[in-house]
Design brief:
- The protein has 18 helices and five strands.
- By secondary structure, the protein is mainly alpha-helical.
- A three-stranded mixed beta sheet has the order 3-4-5, covered by helices on one side.
- Helix 6 packs across helix 18 (467-480) and helix 8 (186-210) runs antiparallel to helix 9.
Length: 491
């Protein structure tokens, strides 16, 4: 009886939310209908491009704290994307129960934490619950969702092409240093590369699924080779793990599909072509980044540039590094020997802290994990940053721990459930949609799996601050909807 009432209440609340979206967006349908589909898709692509480029301009050119500015611009762009995606009458859609419960539970937990503890970076729960979910609902009603995802992919490709041109012509490459492209940090560069790799791997999967001739796929292989080259010279270990996980996932899924279909030819040809073209292109790309910027003669140096050496050292006098002043960070000092604590959390902290070698390999992350774990509570904290032994640590270098610290342990539980669902449901989405939605079917699990792996050692969660977080939250749109699944998964 009680469970039935809960289901009915949940159904009513979801229907009310969808009705709200219908009432907000429906008046725009006749207006948008006057715009040709090609123009609409071009404008949607431009909005995604703005999400990639505009915020980089704010952070690296204006050099100011930009969370609220970025969030306001991001919400505006999302609303424009939703409006431009309207192509027919909006109707209620069935949402998957497990995903919707975890999603709105997580958003509620974030929002409650914001009310209990005033935060500098607040509003994530509201943005996800209403803005992102609103776009999900509109896309679920669109008759050509493949074209909408094509706009997303085209934006990523165009931004990557622009970045590559600027990098090859103007960004210097220092021997013994880690390359950062147009970014000021090679790790940030690597995390953006993971999204680019996911996009091009979805193209490669599309080519393999449809048996597209190799000569017509050459641009895809060259772009993947460029991503692999950039990854190697950036030496970004987190990005390497994320991209490797995407590649291994694709190989594993293709082997499973090959066993079911008794077809391996296209997969083997595609994998062999990727390896061969990457090997051939590597020395060409390397010669380009070394020789073209000096040849052009207009080196592009940012004020925040820091040279990260291969041995882990940093040289901070390349540009005039500008750091925003900050106030009243929560501080923690970690003694060499802790008081005995036999709780589960205490034992876990001692286990992590006892491995000095692991701490060195992880560039001090174990100490950071320990500090954040000792500050966990149910309400959350005002700031993301923490002072550990007098040194400013920008974040927890782990999404699960960061959510637990910033939004409280309850939020962490919901986020943990979401990460599990994102992997399982995205893989199932691929298994059941790789034919019907071949153009982007692999993109969803690639984004989700790569993101979860990356966030084991990095912190990515604000969607309008860093694009990988935006891509991850946005990928839930296809996981959300409950459909009559194709029977091909059982073939």
């Amino acid at each position: 009886m009680l469970s039935g009432l809960r289901r009915e209440w949940r159904r009513i609340m979801i229907n009310r939310l969808q009705d709200l979206f219908i009432s907000l967006f429906s008046p725009w349908i006749p207006i948008v209908g006057k715009i040709s589909p090609k123009v609409r898709n071009f404008l949607i692509t431009a909005c995604f491009m703005a999400d990639l480029v505009l915020f980089c301009i704010v952070r690296y050119v204006l050099l100011k704290e930009s969370y609220f500015y970025n969030t306001a611009c991001g919400i505006f762009l999302m609303l424009i994307i939703a409006i431009l995606s309207l192509d027919r009458t909006l109707v209620r859609k069935p949402w998957r129960r497990s995903v919707s419960i975890a999603w709105f539970g997580m958003c509620t937990a974030f929002t409650v934490s914001d009310f209990l503890v005033s935060k500098k970076a607040c509003g994530l729960g509201i943005v996800l619950a209403f803005v992102f979910t609103g776009v999900f609902f509109v896309w679920q009603n669109n008759g050509r969702k493949d074209l909408l995802w094509k706009a997303f992919k085209d934006a990523v490709k165009a931004a990557f092409f622009l970045m590559a041109v600027i990098s090859f012509l103007f960004r210097p490459f220092f021997e013994g240093g880690r390359y950062a492209g147009i970014f000021t940090n090679p790790n940030t560069f690597g995390l953006y590369l993971y999204v680019v790799f996911a996009v091009y791997m979805s193209d490669l999967d599309w080519n393999v699924e449809t048996g597209k001739p190799l000569r017509k796929c050459l641009p895809t292989y060259i772009q993947l080779a460029l991503v692999i080259f950039y990854l190697s010279v950036s030496q970004a270990r987190t990005a390497m793990l994320a991209i490797s996980s995407i590649l291994f996932l694709w190989i594993a899924l293709r082997i499973v599909m090959g066993k079911r279909q008794k077809k391996y030819k296209n997969f083997v040809k595609g994998l062999a072509a990727l390896i061969l073209i990457s090997a051939v292109c590597y020395p060409v790309f390397y010669a380009g980044v070394r020789n073209l910027p000096p040849l052009v003669g207009h080196m592009l140096i940012f004020d925040e540039d820091v040279l990260y050496l291969s041995n882990g050292e940093k040289i901070e006098d390349i540009g005039d590094k500008v750091l925003a002043e900050s106030d009243a960070f929560e501080s923690i000092d970690l003694p060499e020997k802790d008081i005995e604590d036999n709780s589960i959390l205490g034992r876990l902290i001692r286990t992590l802290d006892s491995s000095e070698t692991l701490n060195k390999i992880s560039t001090g992350r174990i100490t950071i994990y320990k500090a954040y774990m000792q500050r966990l509570n149910w309400q959350g904290h005002k700031r993301i940053t923490l002072l550990v032994n007098g040194k400013k640590v920008s974040h927890a270098h782990n999404n699960w721990l960061q959510f637990a610290y910033t939004y409280g342990v309850g939020s962490f539980i919901f986020y943990l459930i979401m990460t599990v669902l994102s992997i399982t449901r995205s893989v199932f989405f691929y298994m059941t949609n790789r034919r019907r939605n071949a153009t982007y079917a692999f993109l969803i699990p690639a984004i989700c799996v790569g993101f979860v792996v990356a966030t084991m050692t990095e912190c990515l969660f604000l969607p309008f601050e860093i694009f990988p977080a935006f891509a991850y939250w946005f990928a839930f749109g296809d996981i959300f909807e409950k459909k009559i699944e194709e029977k091909e998964a059982a073939e």
